[in-house]
Amino acid sequence: MANKNDNLIPQAHVLTVEESSRGGKASGEARREKATMKATLEMLLNETNKNGKTYRELATLGLLKGAINGNANNYRTILETLGELRQAEEDKKQRELTKVEELLLKIESEANK
Questions:
Q1: Cα(12)–Cα(88) distance, integer angstroms
Q2: Helix (H/G/I), strand (E/B), else coil: 3
Q3: 3-state DSSP helix/strand/coil % of the chain, to nearest 5
Q4: Half-sphere exposure of 103 (CA within 13 A, CB side)
Q5: Angle value at C-alpha 33, between 50 and 20, nearest 5 degrees
Q6: Among 1, 30, 33, 79, which one is most buried in terms of CB atoms within 10 A?
Q7: Distance separating alpha carbons of residues 90 and 112, to the nearest angstrom
Q8: Nearest CA to 49 among 61, 64, 37?
Q9: What is the mean pLDDT of residues 27-33?
Q10: How far apart are CA 15 and CA 75, in angstroms?
Q11: CA 32 to CA 34: how far, in whole Å?
């Protein structure tokens, strides 16, 4: 494994105009490629197959089928898509905090005896 510091630019290094220009051009090209890929994928997902279902529907059904069969990654993706994963993680943190608070109260009450 390469050293993490091998790829870092020293803090004192200031980009030249040429380096900055190349970086900006590469960034713009990457942004355009990403936009093209997104548009293409969106178009393909909305296409209808011979059975009258869109590929978006079929992908969703495949994701659901995998989750039903126990694929945790599929289930996590579904929760993320529905926005429920964040809420589930927040609920878990709250339960953990409650347990810690209860433990602290128990320790405090035992110390006061």
A1: 44
A2: coil
A3: 75, 0, 20
A4: 6
A5: 175
A6: 79
A7: 33
A8: 61
A9: 93
A10: 45
A11: 5
Amino acid present at 85: L
pLDDT score, position 12? 67
| Assigned token pair, 22 | 């190349």
| Residue labelled with tokens 């050293």 | 3
**Rounded-to-integer distance, Cα 62 and Cα 92, Å:** 28
For residue 92, the model assigns a pLDDT of 84
The model's pTM is 0.49
- Name beta bridge partners: 48: 54
What distance in Å separates the CA atoms of residue 84 and residue 50, rounded to the nearest whole number?
A: 33
pLDDT band at 38; cut points 50, 70, 90: very high
Please, what is the end-to-end C-alpha distance for the chain in angstroms? 56
